[in-house]
Amino acid sequence: MSDRYAVIGRPINHTKSPLIHGLFAQASNQQLEYGAIEGSLDDFEAQVLQFRSEGGKGMNITAPFKLRAFELADRRSERAQLARAANALKFEDGRIVAENFDGIGLLRDIEENLGEPLRNRRVLLLGAGGAVRGALLPFLQAGPSELVIANRDMAKALALRNELDHSRLRISRYEALEGQSFDIVVNATSASLTADLPPLPADVLGEAALAYELAYGKGLTPFLRLAREQGQARLADGVGMLVEQAAEAFAWWRGVRPDTRAVINQLTIPLE
Ligand code: ATR
């Protein structure tokens, strides 16, 4: 019988994970089954344990269960700890191990696929929720000259800053970004889910080399539209991140790193 994996979330009907992992398995000649499970708000933990008891080897975790998966685990990677969230679990030797590949997936997409290394660049992250928590450690390790987190709720940004004291990390109010320029700006707020826009001062985006929208498949979000209006030519959405975090999980589970380019191309929806 082939090894079993699954993604669990709520809702789960739009997930691309089975498609992505199916393509990885095919391309790397791995025998595995990858399904999708609608998570239950009451029984999430029991569902994970049941999947494991039925021979499951690992799971991807999506909203709203990343924190609960993290808490359920017996062991947690450093980046999962900082994110306080797990997006992948591995079942091995009777233990549940938690990882978080969202940040490294985002970093790989920006550096490898979009060709914008973070080293010595000025990087702006919008938001201070789970997505930013996941990105912080890999981003700082990539050596930007400065990493700025802008958020409406400064208490949340400050809490992050206090957890991770680093000389290159700074927090800012949106208004205080006026007159500053960045090489890479990532919208990691959930504003795009409600077709909203973070309160960015004019021209913060215009100078940037890359405007990256974490949401995937939403076309030209207000953030990307603003970037284009401000003269920003280089726009990206989160499709590459989605595929790269999946590749990290696949490599962690299977010991084989799949090629991502063809899968990203297959999933890309033009930004119009
Ligand atoms: P997630 O874990 O998915 O990142 P979250 O923890 O709810 O979700 O965080 C959402 C982030 O998007 C927060 O940083 C939030 O900003 P505040 O902390 O200031 O509320 C941010 N956000 C949501 N809607 C926004 C909007 N319209 N403009 C700016 N930031 C927004």
UniProtKB/TrEMBL annotation:
Q: What does the record give as the active site?
A: 66 (proton acceptor)
Q: Quinate/shikimate 5-dehydrogenase/glutamyl-tRNA reductase domain: which residues?
A: 116-192
Its EC number(s): 1.1.1.25
Q: Which GO terms describe its molecular function?
A: NADP binding; shikimate 3-dehydrogenase (NADP+) activity
Task: Tell me which residues make up the SDH C-terminal domain.
Answer: 238-267
Query: Which top-level group of life is the source organism from?
Result: Bacteria
Q: Does the keyword Amino-acid biosynthesis apply?
A: yes
- Residues in Shikimate dehydrogenase substrate binding N-terminal domain copies: 7-88
Q: Is-annotated flag, keyword NADP?
A: yes
Please list the reactions this protein catalyses. Answer: shikimate + NADP(+) = 3-dehydroshikimate + NADPH + H(+)
Pathway given for this chain reads:
Metabolic intermediate biosynthesis; chorismate biosynthesis; chorismate from D-erythrose 4-phosphate and phosphoenolpyruvate: step 4/7
EC top class named in words: oxidoreductase
Q: Which Pfam families match?
A: SDH_C, Shikimate_DH, Shikimate_dh_N
Instruction: Identify the keywords attached in UniProt to this record, alphabetized.
Output: Amino-acid biosynthesis, Aromatic amino acid biosynthesis, NADP, Oxidoreductase
Stated family: Belongs to the shikimate dehydrogenase family.
NCBIfam families in alphabetical order: aroE, PRK00258.1-2
* Name under which the protein is recorded: Shikimate dehydrogenase (NADP(+))
Q: Which organism is it from?
A: Pseudomonas alloputida
